[in-house]
Amino acid sequence: MMDNYWRIIKKDDSLITIALRDKAKNILKRITFYDDYSKPMESHVTKENEKYYLKDISLDIEYFGRSYKKAKIQKNIDGKSAFQVADELRDLLFA
User: Fold this and answer.
1) CB 7 within 8 A of CB 70
2) How high is the pLDDT of residue 1?
């Protein structure tokens, strides 16, 4: 699916692509689980299964890494909240 997106992006030089990067442990802290009706639910992460979630997140980071490297802007978010990152991106793009 990513190949299809990149074909569209390559056709339009005015598009800005941004890759947000963070460590697996920071992503896990922000993760939210949802039920079948898109309602937030209690976290499934426990001390016992935390390592499995971290491994899956790390594998996703590695898998998508090639695509992320193609982005025009690389932004390390260092465990920040979505609101903090949005403010920083606004400042970066519109300053």
Assistant:
1) no
2) 59
Length of the chain: 95
Q: What is the DSSP letter of 77?
A: -
Query: In terms of DSSP H, where are the helices of 1-95?
Result: 2-11, 24-30, 50-68, 82-94
- Helix 2-11 × helix 50-68 angle, to 10°: 30
Find out whether 24 and 74 touch, Cβ atoms under 8 Å.
no
Contact 40, 32 (CB under 8 A): yes
Give the span between the Cα atoms of 16 and 81, in whole angstroms: 22
Residue pointed to by tokens 């920083």: 88
21 DSSP β-pair partners = 76
DSSP 45: -
pLDDT digits (tens, 9 = 90+) for 62-87: 998 888 888 899 999 999 999 999 99
Q: Which two tokens stand for residue 11?
A: 């056709």
CA dist 39 and 55 (Å) reads 25
